């Protein structure tokens, strides 16, 4: 059904969360889940001091999520990203934060479908990799189904390869970004309807999905599902994705093994001057629901930020969680 199978399941781009350390950790859990960068603005890429396009080779399939509204700048960034080896470019038309609106990108762009379409067309003209858009179902009082369809019509004409729809509208005034992820009601049926009306367009759904059983239900109607906070808070969910949603029933990695496989990466990063806590913060939820999970979290939270903290902190935390005995008899 989908043009490219990795779109079947993805981990949402989450500002301040899905950095390269998080993605490396997530890739140890799933070979097939599509991973996204945090939203990176065109201004940061073109004028910032740091390397905003850096990633680890192991992270593929990997999508760069761009924030911006200037077609020329978007096209330049898309070209740079393709040269660096990204698998896909995604334009953010869903983020409701104030700093995003002030820079004219994110959810406020839903009100300017022509500008969004121009950006998509400019990127499509520059790159051979897929160009996709992540959007909401509406903003403020502009939340009719017709409003959403008018945007999608323009995007299809511009050649968009896929759409990821967060099945809530965004309130640009009066709600914080966190409240915008929780307060506006979910409307999955509206996204299903969109797929029925645009059958040739790859459409994935995002928002409030907590289990792979729910994901499978959405996949009866749509091409893909995207999970965000649930994966971040309970990352071991990813270990089931390859078998459950991609039919790749390889041996499932254990939680302890994930951390053991992460240790060489941590050592390498510490050697570059990375703080241990910048990596281990993404792993705090790995043992969620198991005996020792709290001790794991506490030891990392209390020690990973200390000057000179190294992998011995991780090993000590790991020792606080009993490893299940595998019976091969």
From TrEMBL:
Site feature Interacts with tRNA, where: 92, 178, 181, 294, 297
Active site: 95
Domain DUS-like FMN-binding, first and last residues per copy: 11-319
One function term, GO molecular function aspect: tRNA-dihydrouridine20a synthase activity
Swiss-Prot/TrEMBL keywords: Flavoprotein, FMN, NADP, Nucleotide-binding, Oxidoreductase, RNA-binding, tRNA processing, tRNA-binding
HAMAP family reported for this sequence: DusA_subfam
Name this protein carries in UniProt: tRNA-dihydrouridine(20/20a) synthase
């Amino acid at each position: 059904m989908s043009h490219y199978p990795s779109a079947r399941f993805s981990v949402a781009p989450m500002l301040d969360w899905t950095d390269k350390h998080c993605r490396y950790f997530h890739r140890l859990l799933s070979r097939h889940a599509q991973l996204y960068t945090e939203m990176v603005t065109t201004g940061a890429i073109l004028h910032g001091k740091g390397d905003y396009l850096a990633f680890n080779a192991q992270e593929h399939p990997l999508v760069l999520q761009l924030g911006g509204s200037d077609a020329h700048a978007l096209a330049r960034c898309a070209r740079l990203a393709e040269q660096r080896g990204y698998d896909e470019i995604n334009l953010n038309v869903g983020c409701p934060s104030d700093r995003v609106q002030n820079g004219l990108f994110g959810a406020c762009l839903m009100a300017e479908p022509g500008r969004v379409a121009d950006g998509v067309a400019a990127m499509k003209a520059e790159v051979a990799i897929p160009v996709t858009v992540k959007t909401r179902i509406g903003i403020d009082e502009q939340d009719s189904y017709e409003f959403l369809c008018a945007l999608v019509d323009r995007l299809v004409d511009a050649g968009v390869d896929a759409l990821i729809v967060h099945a809530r509208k965004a309130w640009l005034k009066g709600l914080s970004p966190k409240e915008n992820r929780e307060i506006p009601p979910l409307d999955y049926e509206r996204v299903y309807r969109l797929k029925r009306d645009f059958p040739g367009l790859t459409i994935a759904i995002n928002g409030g999905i907590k289990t792979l059983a729910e994901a499978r239900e959405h996949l009866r109607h749509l091409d893909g599902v995207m999970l965000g906070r649930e994966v971040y808070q309970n990352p071991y969910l990813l270990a089931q994705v390859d078998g459950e949603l991609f039919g790749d029933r390889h041996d499932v990695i254990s939680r302890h093994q994930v951390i053991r496989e992460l240790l060489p990466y941590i050592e390498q990063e510490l050697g570059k001057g990375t703080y241990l806590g910048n990596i281990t913060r993404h792993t705090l939820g790995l043992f969620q629901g198991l005996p020792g999970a709290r001790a794991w979290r506490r030891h990392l939270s209390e020690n990973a930020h200390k000057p000179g903290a190294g992998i011995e902190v991780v090993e000590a935390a790991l020792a606080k969680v009993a490893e299940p005995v595998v019976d091969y008899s």
